[in-house]
Structures are given as C-alpha cells and as structure tokens.
Amino acid sequence: MSETKDARAERLKAALRENLRRRKAQGRGRAETGPSPGAGESEPSETDSRGPDSDKTGL
Q1: Which positions ≥6 away from 30 have C-beta within 8 Å?
Q2: C-beta of residue 48 within 8 angstroms of C-beta of residue 54
Q3: What is the spatial distance between Cα 46 and Cα 53, in angstroms, rounded to a whole number?
Q4: Which helix (H) or strand (E) holds 28?
Q5: Cβ pair 54, 47 in contact under 8 A
Q6: Which pLDDT does position 28 carry in this prediction?
Q7: Within 13 Å and on the Cβ side, how many CA atoms surround 49?
Q8: CA atoms of 7 and 26, how far apart (whole Å)
Q9: Could you report how far apart the first and last alpha carbons of the chain are, in Å?
Q10: By the 8 A CB rule, do 28 and 22 touch?
Q11: Could you tell me the superkingdom of the organism this chain comes from (predicted)?
C-alpha cells in the first residue's frame, strides 16, 4: 500500500510543479503586456439606477 501512496505522491508533486510553472509563465506574460483593457472597471452594481428595482414609485 505504501507503493501506491508513494506513486500518488510523486504524481501529485509533478502536477503541482507543472501548475506552478504554468502560472509563473502566465504571470510573466501579463506583466509584459500590461493590464487587460477594462481590468480596473467593475460591473454595474445591482442597485444601479437603471435596474428594475430602482423605480419604487409604483408600490
């Protein structure tokens, strides 16, 4: 049973290393290109005056 655990642990370590490499590469790519357009803009909130709940005069 310890052989199974060892093999599983090795596969996990290899997958984590690959994931870390990929994330570092993506981070370097983002740093080189700068922030994406609209990255600082937020979505309109639900309480936006254009929303369906904003008009409460008909209550």
Answers
A1: 36
A2: yes
A3: 9
A4: helix 2-33
A5: yes
A6: 87
A7: 0
A8: 29
A9: 68
A10: no
A11: Bacteria
Find the radius of gyration of the CA atoms of the chain: 24
State which H helix or E strand residue 10 sits in. Answer: helix 2-33
Which pair of tokens denotes residue 51? 């929303």
Residue 23 Cα distances to 12, 20, 34, 35, 38, angstroms:
16, 5, 16, 16, 22
C-beta separation of 33 from 25 below 8 A? no
DSSP structure class, residue 53: T
**Backbone phi, psi, residue 26, to 5°:** -65, -40
Q: Which two tokens stand for residue 33?
A: 């290109």
Q: Quote the pTM value.
A: 0.46
Q: What is the pLDDT of residues 5-49, one digit of tens each?
A: 999 999 999 999 999 999 999 998 877 766 555 655 555 555 555
